Amino acid sequence: MIRKKFQNVVAKYHTLCDNTTSNSSPLLCFVDDAYFCLCDINNTAQCFLYNKKFDQCKQCLAQGQCIKGDIDTPSDYLCLCPRCHFGSKCQHNTELFSFNLDSLLSPDLLSSSLVKAKLSLSMYIIVPTVLLIYGTISNLLSLVTFRQPRTGLNGAGHYFLAGTIFSQVSLFCLLSKILHIIINMRGLFIQPIVNTVLCKILPFLLSSSNRIGYWLIVFVSIERIYVTIYPTKRWLQKPKIAKTIITLITIFTCASHVHELVKYNIVDDPKYTANGKWCVTQLSRSLQIYNQTNTMIHYLTPFLVNLICTIVLLILIARTRANADKNKSRWKIFQEQFKKKKEMFIPSMIHVINALPHLIISFSLICSDLDKKWQRYMLITSYFAAYVPQCLSFHLYVQPSKLFLREFHATKMWKTLSGSRRTMN
């Protein structure tokens, strides 16, 4: 009965091929639930039994539609990606704050031009290596300074000490992540479990350590406003309070990024190389919204608080001195106080200025396919530039402060370095 019903339906399909009864363009082919039909030169439908499962596959991520080609060729498939996703498996996401290093670096590292691929490989290894080497020296100098007893009398010294440690972690993870991307794309991992662990833990450590550093600078700015408003009070300056805040920041930031440990996974991609793989996230829509919201909170909140604190601090100090000295203009007083108390402004100002390009570019390229090279290179440049403050801790935290610089000069490291310099001269 069912077969007879289908035969009756197919008998009417000849009219679909007859373009003389319609003003529309003639059909070449069409399908239904059971048949695949071709329109021949006589405007007659030639129909064959057709199983849709032969054209379906499960290679695509982000709910992309997968269309299978040759059944015997694993790499012969096509992914129709949803909006804001691209890549051979729809693995790259260009929604707000969803850009990652894999999507930014892969077009250069997998370029068909051997010269371009080798040059890109060298550049993407050299840049984070230089940042790590310079940052290690700077962070080591900062670390020995903030280990001095007098730097720990106030909360700021503890924030800077913790910030120095997390800066070093983030720089190490940045280089490790890029090396992991390169090795992963070339399918050089022997142990899949090692590859999976690195895929999960490196993005988590990179995100967490970087954003903990943002929050620590925020509390340095808040403490300095507190000191300016209440010069005789010490509650917020107490080391115990600072240590508690550092612990809470670390727990809060790590907890808010736990989903990265769970949702980052390794997927094969036969489109590029026989053994090539991607380290990607597979998030549900609700978790994707959470991830974007979480990233915005960790980026925008420290940025805005640092900006507000810097402006308020400048106004408070200038106003205080203006009331004490009526003979000078407010602008003159502002300049004098900025030079005199530059250690109070420089860290937060540098972090604000440094974060601004990445924020602007990320907002302007939301859901862009990054089909233009300059868009991708702008994102790569702003991404690496965001790590510059992490390798300048000594210049940002120690050198501008007379107290911290004096404590550094009291360390054994400084005495050893200055003694070696005198010997060489």
From TrEMBL:
It comes from the Eukaryota. The chain crosses the membrane at residues 121-144, 156-175, 187-206, 212-229, 241-259, 296-318, 344-365, 377-398. Signal peptide: none annotated. It is found in: Membrane. Residues 138-397 form the G-protein coupled receptors family 1 profile domain. It is a multi-pass membrane protein. Keywords: G-protein coupled receptor, Membrane, Receptor, Transducer, Transmembrane, Transmembrane helix. One of its GO terms (molecular function) is G protein-coupled receptor activity. InterPro entries: EGF, GPCR_Rhodpsn, GPCR_Rhodpsn_7TM. Its main location: membrane. One of its GO terms (cellular component) is plasma membrane. PANTHER family: G-PROTEIN COUPLED RECEPTOR, G-PROTEIN COUPLED RECEPTORS FAMILY 1 PROFILE DOMAIN-CONTAINING PROTEIN. This is G-protein coupled receptors family 1 profile domain-containing protein.
